[in-house]
């Protein structure tokens, strides 16, 4: 069904909801894929719209008219009486080739009589016509459908080209007994192997369609069967090669197979992907509910704060259950069968969503879920899972119930729910009976309401209202209003993001002391406002000395309103993006320019607090990770006041040798001396050319990602942070002395450090001498020229 089916061509097609949805979807994909250009979008939208709508469009074609150049209305069926009597029926039969066999059985299993102007004994068997059309359509595969000469003038994409090649090489099929036999007019070369395999898969599909169509006729009509009921020699590649030959290669079916599907699903849909953290399963289920609520908002034109998700930990005599319910768009039976239960198949990425929810993407919808595996994380919590769901357009009795009694090791069953379990309000409920010892999954923790507060931290920037009830914690209840993260006061921000149960900072002080310090720092919290005006985050820079670190203090990066990652040196809530399937690696949304004003404001606020040396070093390191080099901050200890990069530059412009010691080594040396001496730590005096520098670097993202040489802070914006402050210091030496320091020159050697109680003190230091570096650089250049 081409553009010719639309009287005004592309202009009419662009007015359809499907075209608008696809156009919006493709344009949103540009931002992350980088593979599509604006000029291709109309072509992509047109091709996919015609494919998706061709069956539906065929319903109207018989009654549709075109206008010729003289203004005359032209119909496909000229006879008005025939058109009025059979136009709609013809459309229904035409559409049926796109429908499943089951739908044909339900909707077209009828015989209609003739209109008054035709003989009364005439009848029209719609099922028989549909089966004939279906068989003819699927079996029409030969060179008549793909002429070789026509192919030369078309710029076909690879998939279409393979379709064209194999059909162009097939001769007219012939009937052999009750089978169709296809044969090629020449052999397929190695370069045409993809077309051969596509031909193999297609002919197997033809075989399956003919068999199922004939079975339908056998079940419903006693006087009608197909003359051909399958395709010969398609059982194996070797059999098909007899008729559809190959040249210089053998068609061995080496396609990757998964023999143990349940094992793969349990690995990739559970701990193997997400780790041993049951809260991730709750995050995935809440994310599904968020997507469903956002979709219903747009479809029904509701406000941005409409909709609710309810999370309940329910205790009964049978065990402990977690129920997650929402007011979302619900699921159809087809969506459950073909998408929810198809591991790795996302409903939101499928054409089914365009057809079931027309206009959704044109209104700006973007789902967080993209990979079709999040639901299966529920089996991290338990193997007895029930789902109840109903579309807003479906009647009460069409509430669907899906039940897993033994995880994914056995088939679930699906049915329409009985009266007691029907959903009065549309939406979805997922209920899971958690494993025998729920306290291992969700311990009480150190704080009252730990389960509820853990969910609050997971959904800390959610744009959907969430209510949490924990029957196992005295009925503790917590409400999280939609988008409330943007308006939190400092105590509220700390309570939402601080994880007391993960705190490992007892040596710094009690949990209450740490929270008190954070409350004080949180007074600096400000919104991060992008150049476009969008709020990208709400928080504050939180540089800390090495002894005061921990994951509970890190900022939270959210994707779709739910926690995806953490970021060191920043505290609060920050919006992010991710392409990771597990959604545990993310980067900040926006760009460095979007954050520039917020960072400058934070630095000014911190400077007003008369920060100590440890905070100054932490601030410099955090800024360095963010791509900012503040050369005025004191970051190195030396004889006299602490030195900044500016101080180091002034020193290097005068002196020809500089020494660096690891700050941890100097600290350990001082503590060791203090343990055996009544003197204070300051008894070690550094020489004037010795600087104590932080050598290691605390990555801005969690430790599991240290293997990355570039930490991508903003989307598409990498920052080298693998050498931290010391790498920065060495680069300054190179700049000021106009030398290049090779990696093999980062070697420690025993040298004079300073004095201890008036006596010379030696230690292992990094020693850089301007003259020796210059001469070695000249030798390297001569060696390069000789090579």
In summary, what is this structure?
The protein is 38% helix and 18% strand. With 787 residues, it is of the alpha+beta class.
Which strand order does the major sheet show? 11-10-9-12-8-7-13-14
What is the molecular shape?
Answer: elongated
Structure summary, number of beta strands? 27
The gyration radius over C-alpha positions equals 35 Å
Structural class: alpha+beta
Percent strand equals: 15-25%
| Poorly predicted runs | 30-35, 504-508, 703-710, 716-722, 780-787
Average pLDDT taken over every residue = 84
Cα end-to-end separation: 67 Å
Fraction of residues in helices? Answer: 25-40%
Number of helices: 25
* Largest beta-sheet details: 8 strands, mixed
Give an overview in words.
The two termini are 67 Å apart. It contains 25 helices and 27 strands. Strand 13 (465-470) and strand 14 form a beta hairpin. By secondary structure, the chain is of the alpha+beta class. Mean pLDDT is 84; it is low at 30-35, 504-508, 703-710, 716-722 and 780-787. Helix 6 runs antiparallel to helix 9 (193-220), helix 8 packs across helix 9 and helix 18 crosses helix 19 (511-521). The strands form seven sheets. It has an eight-stranded mixed sheet with strand order 11-10-9-12-8-7-13-14, with helices on one face. Strands 15, 16, 17, 18, 19 and 20 form a six-stranded mixed sheet that branches. The protein has a five-stranded mixed sheet with strand order 22-26-27-21-23.
């Amino acid at each position: 069904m081409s553009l010719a089916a639309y009287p005004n061509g592309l202009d009419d097609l662009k007015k359809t909801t499907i075209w608008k949805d696809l156009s919006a979807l493709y344009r949103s994909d540009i931002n992350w894929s980088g593979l599509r250009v604006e000029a291709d979008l109309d072509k992509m939208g047109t091709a996919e719209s015609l494919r998706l709508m061709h069956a539906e469009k065929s319903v109207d074609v018989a009654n549709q008219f075109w206008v010729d150049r003289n203004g005359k209305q032209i119909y496909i069926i000229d006879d008005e009486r025939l058109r009025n009597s059979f136009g709609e029926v013809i459309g229904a039969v035409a559409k049926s080739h796109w429908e499943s066999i089951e739908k044909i059985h339900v909707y077209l299993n009828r015989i209609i009589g003739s209109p008054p102007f035709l003989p009364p004994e005439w009848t029209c068997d719609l099922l028989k016509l549909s089966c004939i059309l279906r068989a003819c359509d699927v079996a029409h595969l030969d060179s008549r459908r793909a002429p070789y000469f026509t192919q030369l003038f078309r710029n076909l994409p690879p998939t279409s080209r393979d379709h064209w090649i194999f059909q162009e090489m097939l001769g007219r099929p012939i009937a052999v007994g009750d089978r169709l036999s296809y044969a090629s007019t020449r052999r397929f070369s190695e370069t045409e192997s993809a077309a051969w395999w596509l031909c193999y898969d297609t002919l197997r599909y033809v075989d399956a369609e003919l068999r199922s169509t004939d079975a339908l006729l056998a079940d419903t009509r006693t006087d009608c069967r197909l003359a051909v009921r399958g395709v010969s020699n398609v059982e194996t590649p070797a059999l098909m090669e007899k008729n559809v030959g190959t040249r210089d290669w053998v068609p061995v079916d080496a396609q990757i197979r998964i023999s143990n599907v349940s094992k793969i699903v349990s690995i990739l849909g559970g701990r193997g992907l997400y780790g041993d953290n049951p809260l991730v399963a709750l995050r995935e289920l809440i994310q599904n509910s968020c997507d469903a609520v956002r979709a219903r908002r747009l479809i029904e034109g509701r406000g941005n704060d409409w909709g609710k998700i309810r999370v309940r930990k329910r205790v009964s005599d049978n065990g402990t259950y977690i129920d997650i319910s929402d007011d979302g768009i619900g699921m159809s039976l087809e969506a459950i069968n073909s998408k929810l239960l198809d591991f790795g198949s996302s409903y939101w990425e499928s054409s089914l969503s365009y057809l079931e929810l027309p206009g959704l993407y044109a209104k700006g919808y973007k789902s967080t879920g993209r990979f079709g595996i999040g639901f299966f994380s529920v089996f991290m919590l338990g193997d007895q899972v029930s789902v109840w769901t109903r579309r807003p357009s479906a009647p009460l009795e069409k509430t669907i119930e899906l039940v897993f009694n033994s995880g994914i090791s056995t088939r679930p069953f699906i049915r329409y729910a009985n009266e007691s379990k029907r959903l009065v309000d549309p939406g979805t409920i997922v209920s899971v009976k958690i494993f025998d010892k729920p306290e291992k999954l969700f311990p009480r923790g150190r704080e009252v309401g730990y389960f509820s507060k853990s969910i609050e931290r997971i959904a800390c920037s959610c744009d959907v209202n969430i209510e949490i009830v924990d029957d196992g914690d005295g009925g503790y209840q917590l409400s999280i209003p939609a988008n409330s993260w943007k308006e939190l006061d400092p105590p509220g921000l700390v309570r939402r993001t601080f994880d007391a149960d993960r705190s490992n900072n007892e040596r710094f002080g009690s949990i209450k002391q740490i929270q008190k310090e954070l409350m004080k720092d949180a007074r600096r919290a400000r919104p991060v406002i992008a150049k476009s005006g969008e709020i990208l985050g709400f928080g504050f820079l939180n540089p800390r000395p090495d002894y005061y670190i921990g994951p509970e203090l890190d900022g939270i990066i959210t994707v779709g309103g739910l926690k995806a990652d953490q970021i060191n040196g920043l505290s609060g809530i920050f919006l992010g993006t991710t392409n990771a399937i597990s959604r545990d690696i993310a980067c900040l949304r926006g760009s460095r320019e979007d954050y520039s004003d917020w960072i400058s404001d934070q630095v000014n606020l911190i400077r007003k607090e008369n920060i100590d040396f440890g905070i100054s070093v932490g601030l410099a390191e955090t800024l360095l990770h963010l791509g900012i080099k503040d050369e005025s901050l004191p970051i190195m200890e030396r004889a006299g006041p602490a030195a900044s990069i500016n101080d180091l530059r002034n020193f290097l412009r005068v002196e020809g040798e500089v020494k660096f010691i690891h700050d941890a080594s100097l600290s350990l040396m001082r503590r060791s001396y203090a343990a055996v001496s009544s003197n204070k730590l300051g008894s070690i005096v550094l020489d004037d050319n010795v600087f104590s520098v932080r050598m290691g670097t605390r990555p801005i993202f969690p430790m599991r990602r240290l293997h990355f040489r570039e930490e991508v802070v903003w989307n598409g914006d990498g920052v080298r942070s693998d050498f931290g402050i010391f790498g920065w210091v060495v680069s300054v030496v190179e700049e000021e002395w106009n030398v290049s320091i090779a990696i093999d020159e980062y070697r420690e050697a025993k040298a004079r450090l300073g004095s201890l109680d008036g006596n010379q003190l030696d230690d292992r230091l990094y020693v850089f001498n301007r003259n020796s570096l210059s001469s070695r650089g000249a030798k390297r250049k001569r060696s390069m020229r000789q090579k």
